[in-house]
Structure formats: structure tokens, C-alpha cells
């Protein structure tokens, strides 16, 4: 079967919380001033209580509000495709499936969490939300959710992506959001960085600093994050829950589940409902795919670190390259984050998931192959998952073994065509951070004694 489609009545009514089943849940966020676990009151300065409760919950199932389900139903469930044309070209015995999250109105999986985050903030009387965005997918998704829920949205967009991807900025502005290139002159943390380096390309860590500062200094404003945090990955599990149902309809179960990984929402969304089975003894391979220019899992340290550059967030226990790490301006802007989700980090540390890193030219080579076989132009972030799926399919061919491969096609690349132009004209280059530079960055991590 080429396409497996669920009806609206099959839409999951609960999110899956993997904290209920993890062998070890992540260490708690710490207050940088006291090195003690962050309190609810401290979090409530920038987050609504409903999301704080989800952040710390160990209940297996969290009910999806009816208002959120109604909006979900306008574009979910998303289809599951079998990549038969790609299989044929690769001459592989593997069966490759992909969950197409790019069909939503914002073009990516990010609406799965932007809608509930805007809903919970609106319910608690918040008038405005500030946020960061890398490639612009999260900013666009939150701008859409803001206009649907009647909340103002301010976005700090990493400057290199602001310049590379102007149409994503226009999407946000079309939906009513205010967008600032980060670092900006709108916040003290942004001004400080611009004073030191007026041409700073920006990072997600810096953009987070600006958005957090904005929220913390305005009483009517809360902060929203598009990845990393537990409640964000919780919302994204609707992807994997749907995929389970779709594969069951055709009698399939994946041997390998793949997602690109920057902050972790993409990978967590597709994999967590299947990791439940692995935790309970099922043989399953889960692969996190990251850029070699920002190799958080594959070369980072499992330590407490700030979630942002200016040091405004709590310490998070995660794999990190250091909060002041500046990755090069690769075209997969959504993967340019110095840290990773505490949930993903703990699962990786405990050996429940694996990680690989690729250079962007190899990633775009796979993206072109996918576009010319399956007809879909993927976002550069999603193309990392495609590259891994191709490698696993070729490995199956070499070993002569049938395998079922599932990956998350988290977004489409129509607004990333300048990146494709750069690749097709031979202008893309790879950059792999030297180990000594990463070591130097890691030496600046806070020294937390547990």
C-alpha cells in the first residue's frame, strides 16, 4: 500500500508521556543561583501552570483538550507513505515508510505543540508570547497558533536564518507576528552581544536568551519553546501514536525509527510511542540524526548547562557543546542548537537510542534523491533523517535482510529553495568542528557538584 490514511475519528485523544516508563527520568532543572531544583513559582514567571504540570508529570497519558483536538483535526491525522520509488532506486529489500508532517498549514510538525501551548497560555489570560526560532518553522507555527487563539506573538529569529530564509519571516508576519533578527537591539542580552560583535550570525541559544528576557520583563508575556522541554516532546507524540495505528492497519512494525535531532521534538515525536515497546523488551533501533557541524549527542558532554547563551534559563541536564558554542550557518537552521532535550539526552545516555552525524552536502544529496523519486522537496532538517534512512536501506541490501524503516518527514522545503540552489550550484560546503574547539567550549560549562 502506497499511502495509509486514518480518519478524524482515529485522531489520538491523549498524548503519551514517556517519563512514565523511562528506566531513569532526567535530573531536574536547577536554579543557577542556588544549584537547587527550580520551583514551580520560578517557572510560573514565564510558563502557564498547565504546561508546568505537564513538564513534571509522570502520568503515562495526558488528555488533549477538545479545543486543541478540533484544530488538530483540520490537518491531522497526517498520512503515512511507503517510499516505494526510493526503495526501487536503492534496490533494497527494506520497506521504507515516512510520516508526512509537512502537510500542515505551517509546513512542519511544529504546530503539534504550538497550538496547545497557545491554548494553555490563552486559558490563563496571557496576552503575548515571545519565542525564538532557527530556520523559522517553529516561529511560523507559533505565529499561526497565536492568530488562531488571539494572542500576540514576538519572534526572535536567528540572524543567519533571518537572512537565508526571508519567506519564513514573511509567513510569520502574515499571521501577525513581530519578527526580530537575533541578536537584536530589543533586549539587553542582544545589545551586549552586538556590542561585542556587530556582525554576529546569531544562534538558537542567543535567540532563546532574548525571548526569555522579553517574557521575564513583561507581565503580560509568557515564553514558549518549540523543542527541548518535556511538554513539547509530549505534544509531538501524536506523530508516533498515529504512525503506530497506521502500521498496524497493514500488519507492519518498524525495525528502525529515525528522526533528525536538534532540540529533540522531531525525534521524540516519532519515536517515543515505539520506545515504550523497546523499554519493555522489544528489539528496536532508534536513530537521532544531527549535523556534523553541531554534533551535540555524538561529541557533546552529558552535563548541566544553560539552555541559552546569556545564562537566563535554568541549568538543564543534557548533552551539550557549551552554551556559548557558535555553530556555522548551515542551512538546517533548526538543528543549530548547542544542547538537546533532557529526555532525549537521558535516553541516549542509557543506550536506548543511537546517534549519527552527517555533513550538509551528503544530506542534500539524499534530499535531491528523495525529491526525484518521491516527488517531495524536504526541509533541510528532515533531509538528515532521509540520509540515515537511505544508509540503513543500503545496509539492508548489503546484508540481504528485509527491514522496516520508519522516519519522520518533519517539514517541506518550499521555503528552503535558496539552500537547494546553493547545493545545485556547488556552493555548499561542509564544516566539522575540530575536537579541540569543542573541548575548549566544554571547558566553560558550569561546574555543578551533585
How would you describe the overall organization of this protein?
The mean pLDDT is 93. Helix 2 (49-56) crosses helix 11 (230-236), helix 12 packs across helix 13 (265-279) and helix 16 packs across helix 17. The radius of gyration is 20 Å and the shape is globular. Helices cover 41% and strands 16% of the residues. It is α/β, with parallel strands linked by helices and 450 residues long. A hairpin with an 8-residue loop joins strand 12 and strand 13 (315-320). It contains 19 helices and 15 strands. The protein has a seven-stranded mixed beta sheet with strand order 1-4-5-15-10-11-14, with helices on both faces. A four-stranded parallel beta sheet has the order 8-7-6-9, sandwiched between helices. Strands 2-3 form a two-stranded antiparallel ribbon.
What is this structure's SSE topology?
Layout: E1 3-4, E2 14-16, H1 40-43, H2 49-56, E3 61-63, H3 66-72, E4 80-82, H4 84-90, E5 95-100, H5 111-123, E6 128-133, H6 137-149, E7 152-158, H7 159-164, H8 166-174, E8 178-182, H9 188-196, H10 204-216, E9 221-223, H11 230-236, H12 238-249, E10 256-260, H13 265-279, E11 285-291, H14 296-299, E12 301-306, E13 315-320, H15 342-349, E14 354-358, H16 360-374, H17 380-399, E15 404-409, H18 417-424, H19 435-442
